[in-house]
Design goal:
The protein has about 260 residues and is of the alpha/beta class. The protein is built from eight helices and nine strands.
Length: about 260
């Protein structure tokens, strides 16, 4: 197994790099790791008819690796400029375009990725306001479009004037590194996603019908077909929005 870390932050030894190093510390010795430091490279988009040795070298590393670690801080509530620029330039090489310009998974389908980020916001501000959401969502969009599966993510909060990675966070990253060393390759999970979506909708529908029946019984409410329909829709989408928010919070380790 091989793992490549793509590092996109201003400080070569800052907290983002310390997070990546802590992850490397947990990787088993029989797993090969390599780091691509975007600050050390002059990355430009492909120009038709001209070679691009920098992107060729990066593409070679991506092909050889089973897991990609995306390590970038959150600036201004979004992904760092270095990483965004890299994603923009590498796009034609990691996705397949159809005749309408639509993007589809290409040669990297079914590899895995991990996202590491950090921000100045406190853990509770990040938990409630989702400061790092845009970073995670941006990386997820790029990686899933390329056909990769998420294998984990870690965020470090409250980084203002922080110069050393906290021991607790270092331990979390090291533990993730150990798990990555034992990760099994996943195939396409489309059917699994459909079944999960079906189960969520079925449970939400049952809960909505139960709440609606309870309201009708408690208030002796006889609203007729359209009244019941409107009430059902309102209750269903209110519960769905709450559930999706809670699910997002549980998926992202924002603290």
């Amino acid at each position: 197994m091989k793992i490549v870390g793509i590092f996109g932050a201003h400080q070569a030894s800052g907290l983002t790099k310390q997070m990546l190093n802590a992850l490397w510390a947990g990787i088993p010795h029989d797993v090969e790791t390599t780091t691509i430091d975007l600050n050390q490279l002059v990355i430009q988009p492909d120009i038709p008819g001209q070679g691009n040795p920098v992107l060729d070298e990066i593409e070679r590393a991506l092909k050889e690796s089973d897991i990609w670690v995306i390590a970038a801080p959150t600036y201004w509530g979004g992904l760092s400029g270095e990483m965004k620029h890299f994603f923009d330039c590498i796009r034609p090489r990691i996705v397949r375009f159809d005749h309408r310009g639509g993007m589809h998974p290409g040669q990297y389908r079914d590899k895995h990725y991990v996202t590491l980020t950090n921000c100045y916001a406190s853990k509770w501000t990040n938990l409630t306001d989702g400061i790092t959401n845009a970073t995670f969502n941006q990386v997820d969009k790029v990686m899933t479009t390329a056909g990769l599966h998420k294998a984990g993510e870690v965020v470090l909060t409250d980084t203002w004037e922080l110069t050393k990675l906290p021991n607790k966070k270092a331990a979390q990253l090291k533990n993730l590194g150990q798990k990555l060393g034992q990760l099994q390759r996943k195939d396409d999970e489309t059917m699994k996603r459909y079944l999960l979506l079906f189960a969520v909708v079925a449970i939400m529908t049952l809960d909505t019908m139960g709440i609606q029946a309870l309201i009708s019984w408690a208030f002796h409410w006889q609203a007729g077909f359209w009244g019941n329909y409107i009430a059902f829709v309102c209750i269903f989408f209110a519960m769905l929005s709450i559930s999706l928010h809670l699910l997002t919070v549980s998926l992202h380790a924002r603290k």
